[in-house]
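Q: I'm a student working through a structural biology exercise. My instructor gave each of us a protein and asked us to get a predicted structure, then write a short paragraph describing it. Mine is GH17928. I'm not confident about reading structure output yet, so if you can add a plain explanation after the tokens, that would really help. Here is the sequence I was given:
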Amino acid sequence: MMATEEQMWAAGKLMRDVCLPKFPKVSVAIADDIHEGRLPNDKDAKCYMNCVMEMMQTIKKGKFQLESSLKQVELLMPDHYKASYRRGLSECKDAGAGIKNNCDAAHALLTCFVGTIEIFIFP
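A: Happy to help. First, here is the predicted structure for GH17928. I'll explain a few features afterward.
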């Protein structure tokens, strides 16, 4: 079964609804900026990104999970996103390597994704 845009965004909204309340300093406007690929260099925003990425099984304890990320792309994304995401995930797999802080690692990975993936999307 192929995922639709609606299913993808519904899954994304769920993650957003779980993570946003955990970081009261991250407003909906900040979350919308991140969604658009504008990533604030701010502790709470970085930890919000980490929260969503952990829910997406993209990152675990600050370590990028390439296999589960690729699986999520196959399950949750409509076909027209897949090639760009596969390439971006592979190119960025080491972007967070060696970064001790989980939130900083998530920010480094997302920064790479924004620069690499043509149609970047984030919940």
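A: Here are two points you could use in your paragraph. DSSP finds six helices and two strands in the chain. The CA atoms of residues 62 and 100 lie 7 Å apart. It's a good idea to check both against the output above yourself.
Q: Great, thank you!
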